[in-house]
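tokens incoming
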């Protein structure tokens, strides 16, 4: 069935005879001298792929290189390699980078896939298969690919009872009940998919952590998964609940400066490594949304992080310590808290700690300016946290290609060390020469047949992996490959689908939160619009706090006359954004409270522009449906219809957003809607 289970590894049969012939010509034999669980995985993947795409069973050999062989090997098994590839170049590959090169070995044309470790060979193999999947030529190849970040990791917010926080694709794929004895095929396919896009780590459990996962029974289960993932180059990580020493260790305190607590974590780390020798480390959410943390003992975030870091260090593990802190006594602006707390700690973290920062200062909104911590902590490696699951972006239903959002954030200039200090250079460690670097994506994976609920959710998973490997890559190129591998190589199908995807994120911003509006979703589920006061738990949990609409205008004043959050950015950004005339309009209401009659760049009033943006968002969903409808005959009906029905829901809900927000804001603006805006009935 074309249910999407095979993701972008569809390995669709290549119908074009000439093309298939040309591929077969270059794949007479596959020579793989190395022996490991990873080379077994490579053989397995090649067997599946070549059988499906070219109806051939590849012949594997260990030596005896012949004409038109593919040779997949590390330098140790290829004594003659230096004739073709210099030591310098090999050194530059590290342990994960690879080269795919067409060479003439003893006057015979062969295709070489090489790298310094078996995992690199696996990455190279997937890249090679991608060429076939996307119908590229495989002659005269010279591809060199080295990941720009070290830790490329999924964060599952999966609970031990198999519910998934902010998960919209069924239940958790981790069947804790049947682990460690039963290994579900889905774990293997999960590892294949992740390895194919360069992901090398996974945090199995929710950051709102359950200490039980650190007990022996669960460590054993996690170890079974770690064993499945290891040949795919994927390490397992767990979330560590800060109060675990008390909850599962019977200690009276979890104070990071207490010696018994330190001993407890040291022993715990040793225990974990005895089960999982390649354990990656911990991800921690502390002192946020009710999670325990060092603040409970009057200690800093650094003291908390270092406690765990020291326990892991002798084993080679790392700590990813989240900067997502905010609490009830948030002073005047929740957006300021992480910066206020973390910036002063720069330089105090152990060398195996990464501070993991969400892309924006509030919370995974359809559009946020970059987080002011990027550029503010030069002595600390900062890791990017993106959300792949669409908590605030239509969840499992709306088609929103998030890579555009990722790309926008990564390419933004922080000016922290003058022009060119982009977020991406902070993330990959190049700006400050950090050895550790990483990118985390909050997973959108669940037990649904198609993994992500929405077929296009797969694209976000795929793009996240690709950008973690190379955060300088283009979202559109990534999408093109994904479309071809997932659906079809038909140029019209690719260009039309690419067009829909490319515009989808801006469409969502338009019909949800245009011009810098944010967090006006339903207060707890975050799905539909709710700009009104709901159940008022606390100020920063109600939408009115964020949009501040009144008869005098709309928007959150974060300039010096307001919360002054802008002063957390570099002086250049602060200056540019402080003036509404030079602040990019896409961030206008994030930083400014402006009258309804404020004149926008277009000459229209703020009220008119706001209304027109909402209408544009709706129109974009309608156009997307029209475009998709032209593709009915281009792919299988099963996925075509599935996608179409979701798009229709999206269009309906875009109207819901427009009508709800405009009618609500109109109470304050008391102005008529522009003619171009469809009137709610
Ligand atoms: O966005 C908020 C979510 C919470 C989440 C939290 C976090 C895991 O609404 O569900 O909790 O962020 O990132 O810690």
């Amino acid at each position: 069935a074309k249910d999407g289970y095979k993701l972008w590894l569809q390995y669709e049969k290549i119908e074009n005879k000439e093309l298939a012939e040309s591929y077969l010509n270059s794949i007479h034999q596959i020579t793989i001298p190395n022996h490991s669980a990873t080379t077994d995985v490579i053989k397995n993947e090649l067997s599946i792929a070549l059988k499906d795409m070219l109806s051939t069973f590849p012949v594997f050999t260990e030596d005896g290189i012949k004409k038109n062989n593919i040779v997949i090997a590390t330098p140790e098994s290829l004594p003659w390699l230096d004739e073709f590839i210099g030591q310098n170049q090999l050194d530059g590959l590290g342990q994960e980078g690879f080269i795919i090169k067409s060479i003439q070995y003893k006057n015979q044309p062969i295709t070489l896939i090489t790298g310094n470790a078996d995992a690199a060979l696996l990455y190279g193999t997937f890249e090679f298969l991608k060429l076939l999947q996307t119908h590229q030529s495989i002659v005269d190849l010279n591809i060199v690919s080295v990941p720009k970040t070290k830790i490329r990791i999924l964060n599952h917010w999966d609970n031990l009872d198999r519910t998934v926080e902010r998960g919209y694709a069924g239940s958790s794929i981790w069947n804790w009940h049947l682990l460690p004895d039963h290994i579900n095929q889905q774990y293997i396919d999960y590892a294949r998919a992740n390895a194919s896009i360069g992901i090398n780590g996974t945090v199995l459990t929710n950051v709102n952590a359950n200490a039980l996962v650190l007990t022996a029974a669960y460590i054993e289960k996690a170890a079974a998964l770690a064993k499945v993932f290891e040949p795919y180059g994927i390490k397992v990580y767990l979330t560590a609940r800060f109060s675990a020493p008390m909850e599962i260790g019977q200690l009276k305190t979890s104070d990071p400066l207490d010696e018994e607590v330190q001993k407890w974590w040291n022993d715990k780390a040793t225990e974990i490594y005895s089960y999982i020798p390649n354990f990656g480390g911990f991800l921690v959410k502390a002192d946020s949304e009710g999670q325990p943390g060092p603040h409970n003992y009057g200690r800093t975030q650094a003291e908390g992080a270092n406690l765990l870091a020291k326990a892991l260090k002798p084993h080679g593990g790392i700590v990813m310590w989240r900067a997502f802190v905010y609490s009830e006594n948030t002073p005047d602006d929740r957006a300021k808290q992480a910066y206020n707390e973390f910036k002063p700690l720069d330089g105090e973290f152990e060398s195996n700690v990464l501070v993991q920062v969400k892309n924006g200062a509030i919370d995974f909104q359809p559009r946020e300016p970059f987080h002011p911590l990027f550029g503010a902590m030069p002595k600390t490696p900062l890791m990017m946290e993106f959300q792949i699951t669409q908590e605030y972006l239509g969840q499992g239903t709306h088609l929103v290609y998030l890579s555009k959002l990722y790309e926008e954030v990564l390419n933004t200039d922080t000016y922290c060390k003058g022009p060119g200090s982009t977020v991406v250079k902070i993330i990959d460690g190049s700006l400050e020469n950090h050895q550790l670097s990483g990118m985390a994506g909050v997973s959108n994976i669940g037990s649904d047949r198609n993994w992500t609920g929405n077929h296009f959710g797969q694209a976000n998973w795929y793009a996240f992996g690709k950008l973690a490997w190379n955060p300088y890559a283009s979202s559109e190129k990534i999408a093109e490959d994904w479309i071809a591998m997932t659906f079809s190589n038909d140029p019209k199908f690719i260009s039309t689908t690419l067009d829909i995807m490319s515009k989808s994120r801006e469409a969502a911003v338009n019909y949800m939160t245009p011009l810098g509006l944010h967090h006006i979703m339903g207060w707890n589920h975050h799905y539909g619009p709710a700009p009104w006061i709901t159940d008022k738990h606390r100020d920063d949990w109600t939408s009115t706090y964020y949009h501040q609409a009144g008869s005098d205008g709309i928007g959150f004043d974060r300039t010096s006359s307001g919360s002054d959050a802008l002063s957390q950015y570099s002086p250049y950004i602060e200056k540019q954004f402080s003036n509404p005339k030079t602040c990019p309009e896409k961030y206008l209401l994030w930083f400014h409270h402006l009258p309804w009659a404020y004149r926008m760049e277009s000459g229209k009033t703020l009220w008119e522009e706001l209304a027109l943006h909402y209408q544009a968002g709706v129109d974009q969903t309608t156009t997307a449906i029209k475009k998709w409808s032209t593709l009915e005959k281009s792919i299988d009906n099963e996925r075509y219809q599935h996608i179409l029905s979701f798009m229709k829901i999206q269009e309906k809900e875009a109207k819901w957003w427009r009508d709800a927000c405009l009618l609500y804001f109109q109470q304050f603006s008391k102005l008529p809607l522009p003619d171009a805006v469809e009137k709610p009935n």
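note: The first helix runs from residue 17 to 26.
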